[in-house]
Design brief:
Residues 3-229 form the GP-PDE domain. InterPro entries: GP_PDE_dom, PLC-like_Pdiesterase_TIM-brl. One of its GO terms (molecular function) is phosphoric diester hydrolase activity. This is Glycerophosphodiester phosphodiesterase. The protein is of the alpha/beta class. It has a single domain, classed as Alpha-Beta Barrel (TIM Barrel), CATH 3.20.20. 36% of the residues lie in helices and 21% in strands. The chain has 10 helices and 11 strands. The protein has helices at residues 20-29, 64-70, 77-84, 100-107, 123-132, 144-152, 157-167, 182-187, 202-209, 222-231; strands at residues 4-8, 33-40, 46-48, 53-54, 57-58, 89-94, 116-120, 137-142, 171-174, 194-196, 214-219. The strands form 2 sheets. Strands 1, 2, 3, 6, 7, 8, 9, 10 and 11 form a 9-stranded mixed sheet that branches. β1 (4-8), α1 and β2 form a beta-alpha-beta unit. The chain is globular. It starts with a strand and ends in a 10-residue tail after the last helix.
Amino acid sequence: MQPLIIAHRGASANAKENTLSAFERAIAFGADMVEFDVRRTKDRVLVIYHDAEVNDKPIRKLTYSELHVLDPDIPTLTEVVDLCKGKIRLDVELKEAGYEKQVMEILRPAFDAESMVVTSFHPFAIRRIKQHYPDVKAGFLFGHGTVKFCKSFRLNAKSVRDRVREMRADFIAPNWQLLSHSLLSQVVMGDRPVWVWTVNDEPLMTDLLGDRRIQGIITDRPDVGMQIRAAQPDAVLTGRL
């Protein structure tokens, strides 16, 4: 099975990231999934934005109305669900822990377990999703900060592997630069499927599309990813998550 092509914050090489326009472009390109970041405002509105702050003001301390004044392009999760329902599958990154139930209450009426995954850097968020929504696949994001955390607490590969198993993550999603990192290879390679981010280089994308370890490729350029995948010989894509 060839890897899924997942539009990182929408087709963010072609439109402003994490906006309805970027998601519309991803849909038009035929991407398998769209990835986006979820945060929550002071008045508990779930919004799509990567950074914790807008114009140096924390989103968690702003009401949605105040946030909308600062950047009117920031959509709500409800708006994204309405746009994407029946058109594309979702890769939902929880940027914080603690609002998992609220997120799922918006997602579940429109998307079944086969139409979405949830990812996070926060083990608590992954554990809570798997505890309350075991049918939904969840992925633990693995970045350079994760490696630094493991080293600072002197966690060996077995300790990290045990933690990943404890949170019941269905797959690991590392930064592409960490694919050859010794810790990552000892922790997850061969143990769980791998989704890799953020791959924009065409030769690298071509190589990863032929790598049996990789189940998903998250990219700012889903149009390019789809073209490369379609051009590969004996292309097979089952559509399974």
